[in-house]
């Protein structure tokens, strides 16, 4: 039997960059899961101690939970888009770092932190 001739792909030329891109994507997915989990944690802790909190605290706990889930899903969607865009630009050797992606996610994270701070202010 003859061995098949292996053909070098474009992806294999830039394997280290593709593997780094994949690690970055997986880190964003882990971050999204943590953000969603934090939202559920805050909501569950709040409603297990509900008799001690006001109606405003209930509303803020719900908002934190909803925004955390939405933010987590948006993070996964944006990071997936970014992953495929980087994959293409690495192969075409036209890669440019994305400032917009980091800016959007940072802004959304700051919004969640501010809402959480308001929540803590109302329950303490």
From TrEMBL:
<dbReference type="InterPro" id="IPR003807">
    <property type="entry name" value="DUF202"/>
</dbReference>
<protein>
    <submittedName>
        <fullName>DUF202 domain-containing protein</fullName>
    </submittedName>
</protein>
<feature type="transmembrane region" description="Helical">
    <location>
        <begin position="25"/>
        <end position="47"/>
    </location>
</feature>
<keyword id="KW-1003">Cell membrane</keyword>
<dbReference type="GO" id="GO:0005886">
    <property type="term" value="C:plasma membrane"/>
</dbReference>
<feature type="domain" description="DUF202">
    <location>
        <begin position="17"/>
        <end position="87"/>
    </location>
</feature>
<feature type="transmembrane region" description="Helical">
    <location>
        <begin position="100"/>
        <end position="122"/>
    </location>
</feature>
<keyword id="KW-0812">Transmembrane</keyword>
<dbReference type="InterPro" id="IPR052053">
    <property type="entry name" value="IM_YidH-like"/>
</dbReference>
<keyword id="KW-1133">Transmembrane helix</keyword>
<feature type="transmembrane region" description="Helical">
    <location>
        <begin position="59"/>
        <end position="79"/>
    </location>
</feature>
<keyword id="KW-0472">Membrane</keyword>
<dbReference type="Pfam" id="PF02656">
    <property type="entry name" value="DUF202"/>
</dbReference>
